[in-house]
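Example S7 (structure tokens).
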């Protein structure tokens, strides 16, 4: 909304109001004549059958939306440039404000009336109708300014501005008026355009196909979500950091030692951060990593690994992550140990390296930084680093590797996905499971005040709130994906381990 200040010079107010009215009229006429012109182009290309029926449907839909105060979607978040009123002469600023508001689609849209009338103009493709709609819309934009500008700095004017800007009921009543006006448009079209309704199926077909595709996509996404949640099988709680290998499964009990699950029996392990790979099982005790025979759990050798944390092991290599206040590093040690370890990956600046995953000599890990999130792979026996996935908007975390298969998590604001792809990136990655995002947006406005300009969540309704769990570390076997689920909040449910069949 643009409010024209009351100046000592009454003529300046008059010029400002006239300029705003002219700008609103020009903008509205340009907008609705353009919609009518688009309609003419569409009619020339596809024929005009069913135009009146489509226009009636749009008017009725807009009327219902206004009466029920349905939020406008998609919404335009842009407002008019406020600095214009300080750097430009007031009449020129008001002229430009009027043009932007008259165009309609260049600022926040507060009513379905605009979009419904735009659709009617496109459907009927009548320049005379576009002229009438433009005049009406332009006057609708200008009348509140013409009424408020002369009293804007008086107590009554300030009260009216407060009511319009802060009380949702004012906008609600205005939308009811818009609903009534669209209803009258629908009635006029019904009374005046009935003979043209016979060919309605031709005009409806493209829209019906689009709606069908959208509905089908929504059902598919909902079905994948329901399937992912339904087939997840709890394994242990509290438990984190799974590691699978040759029918066994190991995990870390938070604050305690590791556990090995074998043939349905849980076996306590002599150390933390257990990792399975090849014939080995590795555990950590302080700065020492013990390599156990996986079959007998007999200690084979101990490797000094200062600052070691998360582990990964294969038949030929041990990899451990070392965290320092300034950096994170991944160190590789050949097995059986006979050569000093070496750094195969390190962080830079604010970056952090994730938990390592190893198969043979192929190491995969995530790199989280301020600029981007990446999944990387490297041959620890020697070779360049390969970037498997990279994004500035999406987080890629917690990969696992088995042969050429790559399991990883893909996080957006709206959704957490677990996907299965390949190291050579052949073919499309497959969705394994998904849940809602790890965060939620508040309403963006206080109770009893307008929500104009607020930023509600743009996520689908089923992902609009906080997810019941945050997905964390993973492991991969030939038949299942193993995931850590972290309960939300400091007082939430303990971390648990689940499996999802592949």
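Recovered sequence:
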């Amino acid at each position: 909304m643009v409010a024209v200040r009351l100046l000592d010079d009454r003529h300046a107010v008059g010029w400002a109001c006239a300029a705003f009215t002219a700008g609103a009229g020009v903008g509205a006429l340009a907008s609705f004549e353009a919609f009518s012109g688009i309609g003419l182009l569409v009619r020339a290309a596809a024929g005009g059958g069913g135009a009146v029926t489509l226009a009636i449907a749009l008017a009725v839909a807009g009327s219902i939306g206004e009466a029920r105060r349905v939020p406008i979607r998609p919404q335009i978040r842009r407002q008019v440039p406020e600095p214009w009123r300080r750097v430009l002469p007031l009449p020129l600023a008001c002229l430009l404000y009027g043009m932007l508001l008259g165009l309609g689609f260049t600022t926040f849209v507060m009513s379905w009336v605009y979009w419904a009338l735009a659709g009617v103009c496109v459907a009927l493709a009548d320049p005379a109708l576009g002229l009438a709609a433009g005049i009406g819309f332009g006057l609708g934009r200008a009348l509140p300014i013409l009424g408020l500008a002369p009293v804007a700095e008086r107590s009554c004017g300030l009260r009216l501005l407060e009511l319009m800007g802060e009380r949702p009921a004012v906008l609600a009543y205005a939308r009811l008026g818009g609903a009534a006006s669209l209803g009258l448009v629908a009635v006029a079209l019904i009374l005046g355009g009935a003979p043209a309704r016979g060919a309605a199926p031709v005009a409806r077909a493209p829209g019906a196909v689009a709606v069908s595709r959208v509905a089908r996509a929504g059902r598919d996404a909902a079905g994948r979500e329901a399937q992912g949640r339904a087939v997840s099988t709890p394994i242990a709680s509290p438990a984190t950091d799974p590691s699978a290998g040759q029918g066994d499964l190991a995990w870390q009990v938070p604050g305690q030692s590791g556990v090995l699950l074998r043939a349905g029996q849980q076996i306590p392990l002599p150390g933390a951060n257990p990792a399975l790979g090849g014939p080995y099982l590795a555990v950590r005790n302080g700065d020492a990593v013990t390599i156990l025979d996986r079959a007998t759990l007999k200690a084979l050798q101990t490797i000094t690994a200062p600052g070691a944390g998360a582990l990964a092991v294969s038949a030929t290599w041990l990899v451990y992550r070392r965290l320092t206040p300034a950096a994170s590093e991944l160190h590789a040690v050949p097995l059986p140990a006979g050569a000093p370890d070496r750094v195969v990956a390190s962080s830079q600046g604010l970056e952090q390296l994730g938990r390592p995953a190893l198969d043979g000599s192929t190491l995969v890990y995530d790199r989280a930084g301020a600029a981007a999130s990446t999944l990387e792979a490297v041959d620890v026996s020697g070779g360049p680093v390969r970037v498997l996935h990279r994004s500035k908007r999406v987080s890629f975390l917690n990969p696992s590797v088995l042969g050429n298969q790559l399991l990883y998590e893909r996080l957006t604001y709206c959704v957490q996905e677990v996907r299965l792809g390949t190291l050579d990136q052949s073919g499309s990655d497959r969705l394994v499971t998904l849940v809602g995002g790890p965060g939620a947006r508040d309403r963006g406005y206080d109770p009893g005040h307008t929500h104009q300009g607020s930023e509600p969540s743009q996520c689908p309704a089923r992902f609009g709130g906080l997810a019941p769990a945050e997905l964390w570390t993973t492991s991969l076997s030939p038949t299942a994906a193993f995931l850590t689920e972290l309960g939300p909040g400091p007082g939430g449910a303990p971390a648990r381990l689940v499996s999802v069949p592949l």
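Notes on this example. Residues 10-224 form one domain.
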